[in-house]
């Protein structure tokens, strides 16, 4: 369109540039701060030219917070959540879109409701469940009198117990138990033309065959988008890993940031803290930059 | 090769019945076209044969075996869909060969059969492409190939040409015809395009409102339409219809402004009937010619080879198709001549054809 | 919306849903039910029986000044950070949508902040906003003691708002930009042909068409401010000073896991759940409207 709006264009550029500064400034400051020595970083104002201690600080942060194994834990958790989500949501969406069975609407709503309550608001009881993941089933057996029955009949006392604290399953499974991905797939499956299903049926394919040969390959884009979003979301989890990993062996990188908060008293080691922050924020940033398209797409699709 | 027998087939959804007891016998190797306006139940009937829709009543038999309860894959039918329904993530070869893969045919044999089909359809150079990279006509051919490779007993076509442009449609039409002549497989073809229907069909089934209106060869359907619906639906421009009332010695038309002398043939006086004349059966003559109807020209539509002249006949719209080089001005008067053998009569009440009339005057003075 | 074509073997169909159903039963419905049960009983930490107390837990929470303080803090936090994050994002998205040179670049960079974990950016902001080092310390050099999030509740609140808003500008930007780009180009062109300028077009065409997105983001931002704030609060202020930033989720966590008051924490969870459910229902009504626009 031919439009001459020089003043407005100038203002646009200025504001966008300010927005850009605002968005990148924290990254830049973190990077610069992590390159200073203890004295420089505590100077007011902090020198804006990078110092020379970058690698030393990174190394110190790495060892202080034991980031190697923690990053690996983060990676395992994030990958597990992303993969679990991508698979389980696809299965569920296939079930509620491509079949008509009694109670389907009920199941749909059961899953739908999980969108409403984030893990954060039900942490306390979820924690209790994870401490013994079979406790719900034990309770059901107890209440229905089944455990009494089993004890009478077989003489075995039923006591189900499987603790998931400090385990990858404990980290991952509760994070998968939401409907986010299911609805992403559902929306997509609904746009797959019926004729394609019919053609597959004419070609002799049954439900499973259709799911694997046609539907899943067609969903590749959605899988990539969902996988990206879920990886980031899981990587950035804080409260849940904090609770569930009572010993250090399963702690994640994000929860370990707490170890880097400078102590009160003495000169605060901000350079080390910022070096650690940089390490922890880098993987998700790389994912966002590399997977930009999927990230944006997934974000918009999962919230619909 | 198989025959199809449809006995009183019905289909109803929760509240609506869309197919009302259809009876149809399709001989082995026959090419049958089901023609009708959208929503007439023609696609539903086809999908009932395919096994994609449950049959609510009656039965469908292929080669004498009732298939009501059989799944699509067990019926031996192949289908070409309106939008082709090609699997977008598979190559042409994979698309064509998918049914064989599902059936567990070994890879070597599969490749061989894909090659053979591709050769027939001239698709060999496209086998590695994805459907996205194909033109409409090529996609159409892949869809045909997918149906052919299974060597099915019955071919089903669900408006397969409606997404193509006019030129390709004509070309594909003749290709389908040729293919049928070669494979000689029983084919059922659904369309709403009457030209397509007329050109392809051995036998034509005209459907409306979930019922079969008429079954016959294209020539029969054109020359002796069984109902008013068939008369107006088949043929372009559509047949002219003049409403009339039976009188003692003839027919009063156009609210009494014209009369047609003819034998009453046992119909009670006052019965409402409709007279139909095909536009191409009307001859254009000079106004005032003896025995000609006088009408005023509204609009002339040039078709190149001929033209359609829309006239006003005592307030009723009427059309004439002529190949003569006449170009009457809008507003001018023309004379129309109609031969008695070109007149069709239908009951206004039931829409059924009335063959009881004999027009008594050779060139009736209307 | 429903599929016309489905598969007939529905027993297989149910099997596909079983993994998900098991997961949500174990980790969603059971804990949620448990929370309701605990909120109505007096729960001994780590087992040891529980006593039915009816609504006593709710009564004691709702009569506690600490809890009301936490609600107020949460609302202040939600209100200001949502307003900030949405306003800035709206401006940036509207300007990026003008597609001047460089807009592709802004489209890429402006969404980065949303990828960062809340605790990580919280630590970064803790440094940037620290009173004795970093950047705001300059202010303290000129007027000593004017800025100290460690001592002043308002400063602490401002700090967590800054950190949260920074992250959610990126988030809102993505949605606003998508909404702007979903407006058919022909609509803008038609308005231009009608003689409407850039600013006029924004108010007459674009803004009305994205109002559904605004409502949608409003609800999402508020709900997120309840949950995603935990990491920020924990790293930056630990709820202090003097409970000034003790937001609801943080309080649930500290009461439940530090104070071992399961019943109180459960009752607070229930109240928060209700709040979020009300907001979500609100949101679905607007999603309906969103569909109507298209």
Report on the structure:
The complex is a heterotrimer of chains A (304), B (366) and C (294). Chain A has 304 residues and is mainly alpha-helical. Helix content of chain A is 70%, strand content 0%. The model of chain B has no long low-confidence stretch (mean pLDDT 88). In chain B, strand 1 and strand 2 form a beta hairpin. By secondary structure, chain B is α+β, with helices and mostly antiparallel strands. Chain B contains 8 helices and 20 strands. Chain C contains 12 helices and 2 strands. The radius of gyration of chain C is 24 Å and the shape is flat. The longest helix of chain C is centred in the N-terminal third of the chain and has 32 residues. In chain C, strand 1 and strand 2 form a beta hairpin. With 294 residues, chain C is an all-alpha fold. Classes of the chains: A mainly alpha (304), B alpha+beta (366), C mainly alpha (294). At the A-C interface, helix 1, helix 4, helix 5, helix 6 and helix 9 of A face helix 1, helix 3, helix 4, helix 5 and helix 6 of C.
Task: Detail the topology: elements first, then pairings.
The complex is a heterotrimer of chains A (304), B (366) and C (294).
Chain A: H1 6-33, H2 38-41, H3 54-64, H4 67-98, H5 104-113, H6 123-131, H7 135-144, H8 146-154, H9 168-176, H10 180-191, H11 194-202, H12 207-218, H13 220-235, H14 239-244, H15 253-256, H16 270-290, H17 292-302
Chain B: E1 4-12, E2 17-26, E3 31-35, H1 42-50, E4 57-62, E5 65-66, E6 77-80, H2 92-102, H3 107-121, H4 136-148, E7 154-158, H5 166-183, E8 186-191, H6 194-200, E9 203-208, E10 211-216, H7 218-223, H8 228-233, E11 240-247, E12 250-253, E13 258-261, E14 272-277, E15 283-285, E16 293-302, E17 307-313, E18 316-322, E19 333-337, E20 344-347
Parallel strand pairs in B: 3-8, 3-9, 6-7, 7-8
Antiparallel strand pairs in B: 1-2, 1-4, 4-5, 9-10, 11-12, 11-14, 12-13, 14-20, 15-19, 16-17, 16-19, 17-18
Helix pairs in contact in B: 2-3, 2-4, 3-4
Chain C: H1 10-39, E1 41-43, E2 50-52, H2 56-62, H3 65-96, H4 103-109, H5 118-128, H6 137-142, H7 153-182, H8 185-193, H9 198-227, H10 229-236, H11 248-258, H12 262-293
Organism (chain B): Mesorhizobium qingshengii
GO molecular function (chain B): ATP binding
Keywords (chain B): ATP-binding, Nucleotide-binding, Transport
């Amino acid at each position: 369109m031919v439009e001459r709006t020089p003043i407005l264009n100038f203002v646009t550029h200025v504001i966008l540039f300010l927005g850009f500064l605002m968005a990148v400034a924290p990254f830049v400051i973190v990077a610069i701060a992590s390159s200073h020595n203890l004295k420089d970083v505590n100077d007011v104002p902090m020198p804006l030219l990078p110092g020379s201690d970058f690698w030393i600080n990174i190394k110190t942060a790495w060892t202080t917070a034991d980031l190697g194994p923690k990053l690996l834990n983060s990676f395992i958790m994030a990958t597990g959540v992303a993969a679990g989500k991508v698979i389980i949501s696809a299965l569920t969406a296939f079930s509620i879109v491509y079949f008509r069975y009694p109670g389907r609407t009920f199941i749909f709503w059961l899953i739908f409701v999980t969108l409403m309550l984030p893990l954060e608001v039900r942490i306390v009881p979820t924690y209790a469940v994870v401490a013994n993941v079979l406790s719900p089933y034990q309770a059901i057996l107890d209440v229905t009198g089944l455990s009494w029955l089993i004890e009478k009949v077989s003489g075995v006392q039923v006591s189900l117990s499987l603790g998931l604290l400090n385990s990858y399953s404990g980290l991952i499974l509760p994070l998968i138990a939401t409907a986010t991905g299911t609805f992403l797939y559902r929306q997509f499956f609904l746009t797959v033309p019926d004729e394609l299903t019919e053609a597959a049926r004419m070609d002799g394919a049954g439900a499973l065959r259709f799911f694997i040969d046609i539907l899943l390959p067609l969903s590749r884009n959605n899988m990539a988008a969902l996988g990206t979003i879920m990886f980031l979301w899981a990587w950035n989890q804080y409260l849940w890993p904090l609770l569930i990993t009572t010993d250090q062996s399963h702690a994640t990188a994000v929860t370990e940031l707490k170890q880097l908060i400078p102590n009160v008293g003495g000169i605060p080691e901000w350079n080390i803290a910022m070096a650690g922050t940089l390490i922890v924020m880098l993987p998700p940033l790389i994912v966002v930059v590399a997977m930009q398209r999927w990230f944006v797409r997934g974000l918009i699709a999962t919230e619909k | 090769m198989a025959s199809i027998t449809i006995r009183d087939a019905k289909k109803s959804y929760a509240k609506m019945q869309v197919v009302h007891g259809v009876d149809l016998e399709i001989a082995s190797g026959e090419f049958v076209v089901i023609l009708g306006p959208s929503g007439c139940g023609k696609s539903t009937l086809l999908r009932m044969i395919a096994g994609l829709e449950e049959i609510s009543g009656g039965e469908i038999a292929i080669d004498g075996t009732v298939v009501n309860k059989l799944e699509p894959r067990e019926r031996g039918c192949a289908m070409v869909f309106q939008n082709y329904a090609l699997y977008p993530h598979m190559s042409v070869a994979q698309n064509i060969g998918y049914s064989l893969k599902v059936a567990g045919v070994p890879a070597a044999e599969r490749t061989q059969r894909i090659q053979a089909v591709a050769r027939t359809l001239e698709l060999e150079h496209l086998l590695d492409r994805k459907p996205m990279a194909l033109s409409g006509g090529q996609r159409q051919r892949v869809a045909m190939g997918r149906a052919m490779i299974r060597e099915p007993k019955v071919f089903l076509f669900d408006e397969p040409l409606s997404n193509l442009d006019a030129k390709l449609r004509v070309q594909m039409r003749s290709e389908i015809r040729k293919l049928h002549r070669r494979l000689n497989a029983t084919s059922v073809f659904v369309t709403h395009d009457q030209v397509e229907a007329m050109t392809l069909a051995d036998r034509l089934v005209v459907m409306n409102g979930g019922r079969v209106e008429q079954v016959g060869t294209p020539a029969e359907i054109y020359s002796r339409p069984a109902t008013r619906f068939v008369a107006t639906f088949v043929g372009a421009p559509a047949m002219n219809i003049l409403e009339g009332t039976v009188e003692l010695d003839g027919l009063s038309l156009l609210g009494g402004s014209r009369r047609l002398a003819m034998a009453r043939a046992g119909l009670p006086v006052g019965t409402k009937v409709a007279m139909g004349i095909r536009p191409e059966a009307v001859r254009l003559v000079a106004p005032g010619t003896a025995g000609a109807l006088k009408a005023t020209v509204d609009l002339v539509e040039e078709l190149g080879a001929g033209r359609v002249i829309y006239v006003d006949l005592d307030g009723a719209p009427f059309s004439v198709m002529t190949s003569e080089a006449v170009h009457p001005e809008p507003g001018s008067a023309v004379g129309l001549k109609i031969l008695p053998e070109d007149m069709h009569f239908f009951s206004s009440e039931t829409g059924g054809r009335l063959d009881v009339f004999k027009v008594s005057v050779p060139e009736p003075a209307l | 919306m429903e599929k016309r074509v489905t598969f007939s073997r529905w027993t297989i169909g149910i099997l596909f849903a079983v993994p998900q159903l098991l997961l949500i039963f174990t980790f969603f419905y059971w804990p949620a039910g448990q929370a309701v049960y605990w909120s109505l009983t007096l729960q001994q930490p780590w087992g040891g029986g529980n006593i039915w107390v009816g609504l006593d837990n709710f009564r004691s929470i709702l009569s506690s000044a600490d809890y009301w303080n936490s609600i107020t803090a949460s609302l202040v936090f939600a209100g200001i950070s949502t307003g900030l994050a949405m306003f800035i994002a709206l401006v940036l998205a509207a300007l990026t949508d003008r597609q001047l040179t460089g807009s592709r670049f802004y489209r890429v960079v402006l969404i980065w902040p949303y990828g960062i974990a809340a605790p990580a950016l919280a630590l970064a902001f803790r440094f940037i906003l620290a009173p004795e080092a970093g950047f705001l310390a300059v202010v303290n050099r000129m007027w000593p003691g004017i800025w100290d999030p460690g001592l002043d509740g308002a400063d602490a609140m401002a700090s967590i708002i800054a950190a949260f808003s920074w992250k959610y500008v990126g988030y809102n930007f993505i949605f606003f930009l998508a909404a702007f780009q979903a407006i058919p180009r022909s609509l803008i062109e038609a308005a231009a042909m009608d003689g409407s300028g850039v600013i006029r077009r924004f108010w007459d065409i674009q803004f009305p068409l994205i109002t559904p997105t605004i409502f949608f983001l409003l609800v999402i931002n508020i709900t997120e401010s309840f949950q995603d704030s935990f990491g920020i609060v924990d790293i930056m202020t630990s709820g202090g000073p003097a409970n000034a930033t003790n937001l609801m989720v943080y309080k649930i966590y500290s009461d439940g896991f530090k104070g071992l008051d399961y019943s109180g924490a459960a009752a607070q969870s229930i109240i928060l759940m209700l709040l979020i459910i009300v907001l979500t229902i609100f949101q679905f009504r607007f999603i309906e409207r969103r569909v109507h626009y298209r």
